[in-house]
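Example record used in the benchmark description.
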Amino acid sequence: MPGQPPLSGWVIIELATGIAGGYCAKILADGGAEVVKVEPPRGDPLRRWSASGAPIAEGDDGALFQYLAASKRSVVADPATPAGLAPVHDLLERADAVVWSTGSPLAEAAGLHPSALLRAHPHLTVTAITPFGLAGPWHGRPATEFTLQAWSGGHIGLGRGSPERAPVFVGGRVGEWLAGAYAAVGTMASRMRPGHPGHPGELVDVSVLEAQVMTLTYYPVTYMDALGRPFRRRRAVVTPGVGLAQDGMVAVGVGTGQQWLDFCAMVGHPEWMQDKKLFRERGHLAPVIDQWFAEHTVEEIRDIAGALRLPHALIANGANLPTLDHFAARRSFVPAPGGFLQPGPPVRTQPPLLRPPGAAPQLGADTGAVPAGGRREPPVAAGAPHGAPFSDLRVLDMTAFWAGPSCTHVLAMLGAEVIHLESTARLDGARTLGAPFTEERWWERSPIFAALNTNKKSVTLDFRSERGMELLRRLVASVDVVVENFTPRVLEQAGLTYDELRAIREDIILVRMPGFGLDGPWRDNAAFAYTIEDASGFTWLTGYPDERPLEPYCVGDPNAGIHALAGLLLALEHRRRTGEGVAVEAAMVDAAINVTAEQVIEYSAYGALLERAGNRGPAAAPQNLYRTADTDERGGNDCWVALAVASDDQWAALVGVLGRPAWAADASLSRAGGRRERHDLIDGHLAAWCGERGAEEIVAELWAAGVPVAKVVQPHHQAEVEQLLARRFFETLEHPVSGAARYSTLPMRFSAGPERLHRRHAPLLGEHNAEVLGGLGLGPREIAALEADGVIGREPG
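Model output (structure tokens):
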């Protein structure tokens, strides 16, 4: 069907409320699916939501709802009676998939639970998004974005924040957005299984907690198992990081040893280069670095950092994001049908695959107008139960570090043959992360590389040589997909643009993952997770209001990876239907501004600038971290619980657990507005109450009463979290050099399999040279000659 979006013909029923389900269905709708949002008579509560508290006129919908509901249809059904639910089942009989989440009286009505939906409609893919997953001892327990971040290790994260204060969460509801993106990928993966025609249906069980583990921490369990120590031992403010220049805030980062040397030269302290310990322990240099920032303007700092190719970015927020020169040049923000500004799509494709967003539907606008029943043939061929979704896919993975490999890793875990390309002269940078350089074969010992590359094959090929380029072209001819995250100029200089790859294989899919895009003023800027966070608004919302914001130092990379994968799946479906290849541009920053969309939307719709507020937030009051009586593993008292009261009923339950003290009897506290006004008072009393108790006791009492609460988990203890253990989120795998370790899997379970996701350890450098090159027709002598000439190899050269 040339000219139509790749998911045209798909029918998705949205039985969800909130960001995660809405964003999942939005990604599918943007890809061309017909999304029918089924709502209770009073509508999705998100219709009345504004993070800033801006008033929404009667009959209007909130701007965030309009963004998430673009191009969808709305049908109202009454969950109170079987007759009211009958039209829902008629719609489901016609559908291909349903997106389901907790929190809606309709979704939780009898007969509409995910397992019941699959029994009644066995052809459906049922994608369920819940805080903890549908199974396990914690399923159904109360939770919020804030408490889930605590359970995930995300509050402590990568050592984020000064030890003099409570650690802070990553601002915004990043876990919900990321869970929505994973859910969209899971839904598409389920519908795209290869095999017999006719889909048996399955359950895709998505956990928000597990999505946070994947995106707010950096494989801390694998790191601990492999090296015997935590990724970061103590909390600290990253130096350098966000700086106060003469005229604003700007961030400069150091991700490699060479960047540290360049930074020393930048700030006029070459003597720092002589002390190798300063690369990892330099917090005490902060006052000197701060003084240097204060003596320069933002543009001066950006110019110097750019000349040295140091990672850097402005600190962007909802007010300035659309005005920044790069986003203006790339038209990164577009007018929404509702009149406000919203981010453009997270991926750009050639040919264009995504449809422009239409208006969000009025409540019930399509009730009775959407055809129901009449089950038709599914729009895609799909696979037999227990097969791997991508078992017929061959991928050339030319990526490094975290963002790119995280995209291809999902493919490898779900059955694709993924060939990871490096050279002996230019290793994947992830091989150096945490690597013990004094040990034998150090390049095989990085826990980060090991965690990101299981199931993949390794080929080393120096394509700077004529022979290497010839072999690379032959390899391209044998694969379905090429994924790369070099800086834009690398492929262009190598003669590997999309047009040149199409000359090798006409239906090739090329996924490019530049930091800031293939054009625009920032095109060639160095991009790491933290610079993407700075430039997209993540950093702005993270931290205390009386301090400089803090870089999350994590989410920019995996967020880019899952959005690139969503774009790749749309491209695969387009090729299945048309036989045509696709070029996908999945800029890291484009993915980021979609997940921070609420900031620009709130400012352009209501003139409200969302601000960081420490551990407080707009959806719960009280919401904060409180120190407990426990002792941490270093003998200190850096132990906390997270508490978030999201409703008046939860407040009443909390007061009951506290013993109904006199201070809580104030009638104004029974309402969210009153609690928000007196948050300091409540914090003082809760801090005193928690300070006399251990975290286990606090969690047990409050959870039993129905109050969202969590222990703030150290990231390297994630594998001890009861819920993650029960869901087998970690799998143990033996590595021939570094030994056994536990590896995180995916934040979703497919009822049709695969049962186990890690089948084989991350590849040794060049381990599959003979296998892969032999498959291209090379004999043993030719392969040996290539190694002798340095075109391929098994050790760094």
